[in-house]
Structures are given as structure tokens and as C-alpha cells.
Amino acid sequence: MSETSWTQRLFGGFAKTSERLTANLPGSGGTAKLDDATLDEVEDALILSDLGPSAAARIRAKLSDKRFGLEITTRELREAVAEEIAAILRPVAKPLEITAFPRPQVILVIGVNGSGKTTTIAKLAHLFQEDDYGVLLAAGDTFRAAAIGQLATWANRIGVDLVRGPEGGDPAAIVFDAVKQATDTGIDALIVDTAGRLQNKKELMEELAKIRRVLGRINPEAPHDVVLVLDATNGQNALAQIDVFKEVAGVTGLIMTKLDGTARGGVLVAAAEQYGLPIHAIGVGEKMEDLRPFDPDLVARVIAGVA
């Protein structure tokens, strides 16, 4: 996908988020004096767009420091908001890169059921393929036959091998076999699907700890990445998932999906402000090319409605 096409997809995908924010910003096409009342409106608009109280307060303070008392057009206000959003997002923008030596780089992908985790794994594998990396998938979510079947379908579609076991099998054993196969065949990246059963946090924690122990015996550096997939349609509830998975899995980075069709895309900014975890990529649709590395400046402009 060309950069122009991706930009168009982002503006289309974030349309509801942008519309919610810009509809609540003061000015309405004219000018406004950036006084306390106007800044209150800006802060409220940011909170209503799921950017969260902390990010909203930070952006308000920056606008006040730079422009308090000045007349500002709607366009200038949007551009100023976009710049402050970008300032929050830039430090966390970090593409997922294959740097492990020796290979393979082991990437655990975690997230609640329904977050788009399995589809994201396939899209991530496809991104690596575009950079000529060899990829292997492992079906570590053995408690849902549907998850194994879905991952098998995707693996076949993109032309990568999948290491799988029986439903209800030991995920750690599958991961062990996958690492061995990846090592023997010179694979660059091993992407492991994992269970997302937050109903039993203790059991999930024990399962992930066992996977880590098995990986550690093979390579003390593994897993190299623990990537949490978040569904943007959950809004602020996505932040609660970060809290839980940081505790049970040691999250190292985020991918946010389903940013198309939701007015809650601002939660991306809230996550960056509150946790500072690397954001590797974002997804704005079902197609294979609808997952791309995270571009903070572009996303900031899209959220603020600055074409």
C-alpha cells in the first residue's frame, strides 16, 4: 500500500474519532480567544474523545503556555492540538524490529479474546514477510479450537508454517517445539499466539510464566517481545487491560486494532500518556495491508482533523 493510500485509510478509519473531537472544539469555523473558558472547552473536548484526563490537562497546559489570550482560528486550534498530541505520541512510536541474535526473535502476542489478536498476528507476519524475514507461527492458545483453526487459515493464506497441538494441549510444549523448528530452519521471527482468558488471572499468569521458563531454557533473552493487542472500540476499558496484562505478562509494547469505525481512537493517546509503552503498529481495517507501523505525527493530524 502506498503512503497516500495509507494516509487516506487512516483519515477514513479515524473519521468518527476526529468528528467527535472537532465537533466539541470551540470556534466552529471562526476565531476564538484562547482564554480560560476556551481552554476549558478544549480540555472537555479532548476528554470526551477518550484522550483521558491526564493527556487533556497536559495539552491544555501547553496551549495555555504558548497562546494564552491570543485570538486563534479553528484551523490554528486544530493544528496546535495536533502538535501537542504528536508530542505525546512521538516518544512511544517504535516499530517492531527483528534484531535478535541468535535468531529467532520470539514474539509473544497477548490480548483478550475478541481483540483481533489472531488476525493481528497474521498481519504482523505479513509485514515481516514484506521485509524478507522468515516467519513461523505457533498456536499457543490451545483452549479455543476456533483460535487454532483461525490461525491455521491465516497461516495458509500468507504462506507460513504453523506449529500447533491438540485442543487443550500444553502451550509451553508447543512453544518449545516451535522454537526448535524455527532454530533448525533458520527462521527470523517466531510469533506465538497465547490465551486471553482474563476470567482466571492466576491460571493465565501461571501459563505465561511456564512459557517464559521454557523459552528461557532455550534462550535466556526470549521472549524478546511481549506485545499486547488492544481493541480501540473498548475505549478507556482498554487501559484497564494494560494494567492487568502488565501484571500477568510483562508487556513490552502495544498494537491497537479496530481504530476504524469507532469514535474512541483517542484512547491511543491516553495509553501513550499514562503508560509510555512502545506503540508498534495500528490497525484500521480487516485487510492484510490495514496494519502498519505507528506514525505519531500522521495519527496526531488525523485525530485532530488536520488534513
Please characterize this protein's 3D structure.
It is built from 12 helices and 10 strands. Helix 6 runs parallel beside helix 7 (145-158). Helix content is 51%, strand content 15%. It folds into 2 domains: 3-92, Up-down Bundle (Four Helix Bundle (Hemerythrin (Met), subunit A)); 105-299, P-loop containing nucleotide triphosphate hydrolases (Rossmann fold, 3-Layer(aba) Sandwich), CATH 3.40.50.300. It is of the alpha/beta class.
Instruction: Characterize the largest beta sheet: strand count, sense, and whether it forms a barrel.
Output: 8 strands, mixed
CATH superfamily of the largest domain: P-loop containing nucleotide triphosphate hydrolases
Q: Assign the CATH architecture of the largest domain.
A: 3-Layer(aba) Sandwich
Rg over CA atoms, rounded to whole Å, is 21 Å
Percent of residues in helices comes to 40-55%
Average pLDDT taken over every residue: 92
The parts where pLDDT drops under 50 for at least 5 residues are: none
- SS-derived structural category: alpha/beta
Beta-strand percentage range:
5-15%
Specify the oligomeric state: single chain
Q: Estimate nothing, just give the exact number of structural domains.
A: 2
**Total of DSSP H or I helical runs spanning 4+ residues:** 12
Molecular shape: elongated
- For the terminal residues, how far apart are their CA atoms? 19 Å
Can you tell me the CATH topology of the largest domain?
Answer: Rossmann fold
**Got a strand count?**
10
Going across the major beta sheet, what is the strand order?
5-4-6-3-7-8-9-10
